[in-house]
Amino acid sequence: MTKPLFQRTCAIESVSIACRLAACSAFLVTYTALLADQPNIVVYLSDDHSQFDSSLYGNKNIPTSQFERLAADGMTFTHAFVASPSCAPSRAAMLTGLMPARNGAEANHTFPKPGTHTLIQDLQAVGYEVASFGKVAHGAPKQVEPYGFDYVAGAQRIDQLRKRVVDFLKDRQNSGNSSKPLCLFVGTTNPHVSWNSPTTFDPAEVEFPPHHLDTPSTRAHRAAYYQEIKELDSFLGQLRTIAAENLGDDVLFIHTSDHGSQWPFGKWNLYDYGIRVPFVAAWNGKIAAGTESDALVSWIDLLPTILECVGGKLPEGLDGRSFAGVLLGNRDHHRDVIFTTHTGDGNKNIFPIRSIRTREWKLIHNLHPEFAHTTHSDLDRKPMAGAYWTEWTELAKTDARARQIVDRYYQRPEWELFHVSEDRWEQTNLVDEPSQTERIADLKERLAAWLQDQGDQQSVHSEPRRLSEPQHWHPDFFGMQVEENDAGPK
Ligand SMILES: [Ca+2]
What we know:
CATH topology of the largest domain: Alkaline Phosphatase, subunit A
Distance between the termini: 76 Å
Strand content: 5-15%
Number of strands: 14
Shape: globular
Strand order of the largest sheet: 5-4-6-1-7-8-2-9
CATH superfamily of the largest domain: Alkaline Phosphatase, subunit A
Radius of gyration: 24 Å
Number of helices: 15
Order of helices and strands: HEHEEHHHEHEHEHEHEEEHHEEEHHHEH
Largest sheet: 8 strands, mixed
Bound molecules: calcium ion
Helix content: 25-40%
CATH class of the largest domain: Alpha Beta
CATH architecture of the largest domain: 3-Layer(aba) Sandwich
Number of domains: 2
């Protein structure tokens, strides 16, 4: 039976009001539950630290006792990767949940397109105050502003960083402004070059990746690099104490790094030494202590994961996906593949690369093999950054192995295939192996489909150095001018 219009309107209105009341009630229940359940969060970021360079991940030559303590209290991820191996693109991808081609920060020192949604806003939407200390986003204060943090404090040295964090937490407590849950991002610049701290490590005792050259200068640089890792590890322990003293027992604590270290075949490269990073998360009572996951996870997943853990709503259309289920022990799988992209860095590195990686295999596409692969390290050769390059290129004049390593650094084939589960340092390119034809075709197809889906223009951001013009890149012609004691800013 059809009801008169008035009655129908009232009925609809009543249902509407009832729904709104129910929704409001549900919201209040949910919000109250969230307030009761929401932990404080600390995300501690290091800067240019390869996963392979710490005792937690098997390199006992580089002791990281605080990493190990955090791992004992939480979950260690063995297959954590960044989106892109240079500072600004990596951090932009993390803060937006979008890969570089989609957020717009592709080359280093570039930023997301104006108006790009950041996940900081979604943390704020579920009640969080979000504060940033040190190097979290990248760039000058005006460039960091669009990320939308509630509070931003710069600091480069660890002692400054520690003081600013402690002062902030004390002020927050004393002023009675601590009713909201806090998400604290703390970023050190260790172990980004330059490695200037006096080192406690003996250069005679340091060890090298298999594709590095053992020279006196490399040893001196590596001992200094170890010191920066020691300091960032020590600060990890201090930060956990500070968190325990000021933020209570319910703290989700995460440590990771923005990409690999500034050594040859590390930063600016899509080899694992450039893209695979430490990732450890602890949360008392929620994340099982002393556990390890080999799930493939990406930095674009970091904030979606935190958001799911605290009851936040994920925006649609993200590249990042939550792996909270892995973190909380409900499942052990996340991604089937990891995609990474690199576009370049100023006028020192103009060498765009794309890659697809499964647990076992990686296919790398060097988009312009006719370009020379160069970086700040080999071109600038600054003290305690890349000055060892002078010994490397000298050695290459007389030593066949050194020649092969230096040549491989500057000249890359268009495609590289590595059996990464067996060849972690990616030393044997299998791309010409007939037995790999099907695998290569499959990986190429998946990479191409993904690039198309991303709308990735695969652009060249600056004037390249061409292999055919050695006067623009070859060490016999270029990069020998070094200003002593001018190591440049971090
Ligand atoms: Ca970095």
